[in-house]
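ok trying again, last paste got cut off:
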Amino acid sequence: MELLSTPHSIEINNITCDSFRISWAMEDSDLERVTHYFIDLNKKENKNSNKFKHRDVPTKLVAKAVPLPMTVRGHWFLSPRTEYSVAVQTAVKQSDGEYLVSGWSETVEFCTGDYAKEHLAQLQEKAEQIAGRMLRFSVFYRNHHKEYFQHARTHCGNMLQPYLKDNSGSHGSPTSGMLHGVFFSCNTEFNTGQPPQDSPYGRWRFQIPAQRLFNPSTNLYFADFYCMYTAYHYAILVLAPKGSLGDRFCRDRLPLLDIACNKFLTCSVEGGELVFRHAQDLILEIIYTEPVDLSLGTLGEISGHQLMSLSTADAKKDPSCKTCNISVGR
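nice, full thing came through this time. structure:
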């Protein structure tokens, strides 16, 4: 039987966090003969891990030939924000069950995307299931070392400046390495209603009245839900003044929450004044997208311990937790 031409000119498009469309060119004479495609996909960082694999033996996806382009989804657990390499081979299944195969195409590299809004909505729904009842609070607070606040006073005009979010949390979060903000906490101790005296981030604490950062002129977005191989879970929320750069970034990428009615963090008018509540059973990490003036709050030393084990700096999400993972890439 006549040999098959080698596929070439691979094109990858419509890339999401867990799927992509692929097409390639082959000789017209092969179009009606080809019965199957072999698609070899590898994580780029592991491209040498299969160096002993015989390239003529398909070890990846075998798909019946369909008109191109074809969508690849669900055949692998593709991870978000991950570089992959892909090569293709065409084949004709013969009467004896063996395959006549083409040569392998060139290898093309691509990177999967972030979680889309619908994926974040799934994470949000999972977080809502364990958020617990709402507790009142009155201040946002940020713990750090004394030198951090001294630097803000001396070199940043007495302002806490937004910085780039690290890669903690879900690997597919569109905020990681993209959104600038200042991290705050708001969780309180159940028995006192006050912020805890312990912190993983430093002995100095800046406290600011909640209404300074969270009010009807602020948009609230859900950004992530994760754990670090622990029983307790974290939710990341974004507070962005309406119309700000941070607000515009979040608008297209993150689910918008109703500030007066959601399961995580609320601001509502009661008796003519603003009342604030947070979810009891989640550790909330709040990203405020604009600079914060230290003169709007108070700075002091806390009396508790520095619990480094609770730090979430560049924390990796537990990919096996059924509570906070969704069925797309981790």
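cool. The chain has five helices and 22 strands. Confidence is low (pLDDT under 50) at residues 46-59.
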